[in-house]
Amino acid sequence: MKYRVFLINILLFIFCYSDFGNICLGGSFDKPSEDRQKKSVLFKQYLSGFKEWKELTFSSCVFGNSIIEDPVNKDVYSLFLPCADTLSEQADFVYWQRGYKIMKSNFIETFLKRFCEYGYGAYSYMDDVIITYSLNGNIIDSKVIGREGRAYYNRMNKCMGDSFMIVEQATLIDKGQLLDYGDLHFSVKKIKFTVGYDGRIRENIIGDSWHEIKVRDSEMNDSTDFGDYLALFLKWDERVLSESLFQSRPDEKEIGLAFRKHFIPEDLDCQCERRELRWFPRYVMVQEEHIICFLTKNCDLPKTVDYPYSDDVIIIYDKNGGVLDHCLVGRSGDAWFYVFDGKSSPFRLTVKQATLLNINQSSGIPCEIEEKTCTFTEDGYIEMEGVRKYEAISDWDSESFKYNIRR
Fold first, then answer.
1. Domain boundaries, the chain
2. How many CA atoms lie within 13 A of 232 on its CB side?
3. 81-102 pLDDT, tens per residue?
4. Three-state DSSP class for 143?
5. Are 116 and 133 in contact (CB under 8 A)?
6. What is the gyration radius of the CA atoms in the chain, in angstroms?
7. pLDDT tens-digit series, residues 54-69
8. Residue 88's pLDDT is what?
9. Residue pair 356/394 in contact by the 8 Å Cβ criterion
């Protein structure tokens, strides 16, 4: 009797969930087959974005480019992407980019980059991911193989054909260390990843984890000579002070930590997380009694404002490299821009600094303007004249790629 009941249940299941049951209940054979056909076409389009991996062994190149160039359209191909994990769910923006694929007899192995961006902070990272699919486009398995970022790094140190990878993954123990100049302490573990014949990705930790330290002092320049520092700057010989004074150069190099500690006042870092701060040399004007340097400070991780920014700065030195005075010329970023004009002799620089009140508008943007004029005394000290504030309207000029102020 129990076998008869079991057989009836099996027949009911087949009737309800098969194409035959569907047609008997007033449906048709067409809909399920149409869905499968659409999915098959979509999967082929998705796979066409991968290159064929033809090497005998793996390298990190198999995951594709580390720069976002052609991200996967998640609205179209979400069916073929794994669900977000706990960490990537917290990211502000997530992008997938296809690398290479390997066509197996019974499944397909693909290699992708996943970019997880946390706004402007130091916590953004990039994942190397393997996703395996059945031949009809169903996800079999997915696994993060390696993670790179300010709080992560990895080494792929052994690959045997396309059977397994051995990766050393480092994770920063205390992310608070990213916010200062100190050494960075990482916990590192060695992991073996194996893709089985069934397309499942197996992960095995090899041995115990260990610690590695990135020593911050190793980033310092050996030289603290003022002449070597000035050699980083180009000489400004023009009488008129133009936008070129603070423009970046293709061959520009960041000012090293030793130079920064000796020749850049610490209070110029007041709104930045220090590790995320970068200084670039622009131009220098050498006068009889003092030296005027023009620099740009890039702050990717602000601690007192909501958006990253760049500050253009003037620092005045005596002939021995002692700081006489300094001032902020203007700030640029998502919420700021400035315009200026002036002359080099006698030095006079008039600046209009704008703070945008609505960054989502492209025209007719309300803003607050602070206007000031900067001059020098004979002793090399900076004086601010005619400081006044007022409201104005600004517009974005897409041709010149800059903002304009109109009252």
1. 39-216, 220-406
2. 24
3. 998 888 778 888 899 999 999 9
4. strand
5. no
6. 30
7. 887 778 889 998 888 8
8. 79
9. yes
Sign of CA dihedral 159, 163, 166, 170: positive
* % of the chain residues with pLDDT over 90: 44
User: Are 96 and 86 contacting, i.e. CB atoms less than 8 angstroms apart?
Assistant: no
* 128: exposed, middle or buried (Cβ count in 10 Å: 0-12, 13-18, 19+): buried
pLDDT at 25 exceeding the cut of 50: no
List all residues 6 or more positions away from 194 whose beta carbon is below 8 Å from its beta carbon: 163, 164, 201, 202, 204
Kindly report the length of the chain.
407
Q: What is the pLDDT of residues 175-187, one digit of tens each?
A: 878 766 678 899 9
| 273 HSE (CA, 13 A, CB side) | 20
> What's the pLDDT score for residue 24?
36
Going by C-alpha positions, the residue among 170, 166, 202 that lies closest to residue 59 is 166
Distance separating alpha carbons of residues 335 and 236, to the nearest angstrom: 29
pLDDT, average across residues 321-343 = 90
Please, which residues have CB within 8 angstroms of residue 25's CB and are 6 or more apart in sequence? Answer: none
Phi, psi of 293 (to 5 degrees): -115, 140
The answer to whether 92 touches 118, Cβ cutoff 8 Å, is yes
- For 355-380, what is the mean pLDDT? 86
Q: How many Cα atoms within 13 Å fall on the side-chain side of residue 365?
A: 24
Residue type at position 385: E
